[in-house]
Design goal:
It contains eleven helices and four strands. By secondary structure, the chain is mostly helical. The chain has two domains: 11-51, no CATH class; 53-198, Nitrile Hydratase, Chain A. The longest helix has 15 residues, at 19-33.
């Protein structure tokens, strides 16, 4: 979304904007002139999702679920109030559903209609999430899409695709990486990637310690 910066308007010139950007800028200016849009409020909203709300919040949720079985049970049963226990929530997260990856099942989230996305836990959606090719192929060929993201699963692993809507937003609870027993929540959260919570990626793997061979 284009947003207004009064002190930066000189940077943009008509020839520098794409047709869509130019239309958005014209609409923003018109709404501002008519008093329907407050540029300061819009800037604050954009700053919120760019700097304060983001995947690090979802990573906190995942890490807590990995170390706290009771929280994990509440999260899978009723995600919205469980997430709110960590002080996380807001527009786009009024009705959250968390689906759990297991050794037998891998979950993938898409919005086939537009770009519905769990903003409070993941922040701004990536460009590819909103692109028609992802929205179409995630349903038709999820295994092929995952392979393009570098995720190759065993043929025996079932892939379940969840279609987010304006009413319900999904987030994936990925499998906890092996070898993380005893890790703090903070250390675990650092392993959780945005794509792992969408299902197009996996948590970061632990580095393999080099083995010294005897001379």
């Amino acid at each position: 979304m284009s947003h207004h910066h009064a002190d930066h308007d000189h940077v943009h010139h008509g020839s520098d904007l794409s047709p869509v950007e130019a239309r958005v800028r014209a609409l923003e200016s018109l709404l501002t002139e008519k008093g329907y849009l407050d540029p300061a409020a819009l800037d604050a909203l954009v700053e919120l999702y760019e700097t304060k709300v983001g995947p690090h919040l979802g990573a906190r949720v995942v890490a807590r679920a990995w170390v706290d079985p009771a929280f994990r049970a509440r999260l899978l049963a009723e995600a919205t109030p469980a997430i709110a226990e960590l002080g996380i929530g807001g527009r786009g997260g009024e009705h959250m559903v968390v689906v759990e990856n297991t050794p037998e099942t891998h979950n993938l989230v898409v919005c086939t209609l537009c770009s519905c996305y769990p903003w409070p836990v993941l922040g701004l959606p990536p460009v590819w999430y909103k692109a028609p090719p992802y929205r179409a192929r995630a349903v038709i060929d999820p295994r092929g899409v995952l392979a393009e993201f570098g995720v190759t699963l065993p043929e025996t692993t079932r892939i379940t695709v969840w279609d987010s809507t304006a009413e319900t937003r999904y987030m994936v609870l990925p499998l906890r990486p092996a070898g993380t027993e005893g890790f703090s929540e903070e250390a675990l959260a650092a392993l959780v990637t945005r794509d792992a919570m969408i299902g197009t990626g996996l948590p970061k793997a632990l580095p393999v310690e080099p083995v010294e061979m005897p001379v």
